[in-house]
Amino acid sequence: MKEINKVRFEFLSRSVNESLARAYIAVFCAQADPTVDEVGDVKTAVSEAVTNAVVHAYPDTLGRVRVVARLFDDSSVEVVVRDWGVGIADVQKAREPLFTTGDDMRSGMGFTIMESFCDKIKVKSVPGKGTTITLRKSFSTKAGDGAAI
Amino acid sequence: MNIQASLTADGLVFRLSGEIDHYSVQSAFEFIESTLSETPAGAVALDFAEVSFMDTSGLALIIKTGKAVGADVGGLSVINANTRIRQILDVAGLSSAVLREDAQ
Predict the structure, then answer these.
(1) Helices B56-69/B83-91 angle, 10° precision
(2) If you placed Cys at A71, which of A5, A134, A135, B23 could pair as Cys (CB 3.0 to 4.6 Å)?
(3) Is the dihedral of CA A109, A106, A64, A91 positive or negative?
(4) What is the 3-state secondary structure (H, E, C) of B52-81?
(5) Could you say which of A97, A105, A116 has the minimum Cβ distance to residue B57?
(6) Do A109 and B91 touch (CB under 8 A)?
(7) Hey, of A44, A52, A65, A103, which one would you mutate to test binding to chain B, going by the most B CBs within 10 A of its CB?
(8) Where are the domains positioned within chain B?
(9) What's the number of CA atoms in the CB half-sphere (13 Å) around residue A104?
(10) pLDDT digits (tens, 9 = 90+) for B59-97
(11) pTM here?
(12) Tens of pLDDT along A92-140?
């Protein structure tokens, strides 16, 4: 599996930047010629991961959120969302459906949706140091395609 | 995201449009809450026909609106939800509680 393209972008943990991250990733994924549904899956999962960082990583301040996205020659994408914030004390608990440490505008379903819409997700976190969420999704290869320009 | 309210023969309908995410839900809910406080009790619907994107922040909006509407006055319906929104509702186990057949 060979990497064919990679992008990296950073923004401050402002909520308004959630849509920015989604749009950036959607345009990047389009290079692999995915279906509309497949892009939607990745957009939604990235939105969840970025929102987690915005809501939880830096409680009383703004901090960096970095997104690194890579496309591979097997039509798959990997998106890594990383922050250097407070970290998650119990990752297993955090991934339980409906569990949230947020207020009542949080459903606690973010990780569940990431798991539903991606092929694989990995969560690494160290309290006090930050959290890294890695999402992987394979796009369908379309049979009988002519040459792409 | 944009949200508009209209009172129809079937009750109060909130038409949402654009992207529903963490950034937009707080103000959306504040509008819903203040409109509910000024409107006689009755059936309430959230119309998703013009929603181009929703993540789980939309689930929180639906749940919180459902609580504000209460179960004893016709309740809350989610209408015109596209396949992806239905999928998210399914994962959250909310489909049977709120989804209604597409309506105008």
Answers:
(1) 70
(2) A5
(3) negative
(4) EEECHHHHHHHHHHHHHHCCCCCCEEEECC
(5) A105
(6) yes
(7) A44
(8) 2-98
(9) 9
(10) 999 999 998 888 654 589 999 999 999 999 999 888 877
(11) 0.90
(12) 888 888 777 777 777 788 899 999 999 999 999 999 999 999 999 999 9
A48 is catalytic: yes
Residue-averaged pLDDT of chain A: 91
pLDDT of the residue at A146: 45
The verdict on a CB contact (< 8 Å) between A19 and B23 is: yes
Residues 82-111 of A with CB under 8 A from B: 97, 104-107, 109-110
pLDDT confidence of residue B95:
80
CATH number for the domain whose boundaries are B2-98: 3.30.750.24
Which of B26, B55, B91 shows the shortest C-beta gap to A105? Answer: B26
* pLDDT value of residue B36: 92
Size of interface A-B (CB pairs under 8 A): 66
Best residue in B31, B52, B56 to probe A by mutation, most A CBs within 10 Å?
Answer: B56
CA A141 to chain centre: 22
Asked if the C-beta of A47 comes within 8 angstroms of chain B's C-beta atoms, the answer is: yes
- Nearest chain B residue to A22 by CA: give it: B53
pLDDT tens digits for range A15-70: 999 999 999 999 999 999 999 999 999 999 999 999 999 999 999 899 999 999 99
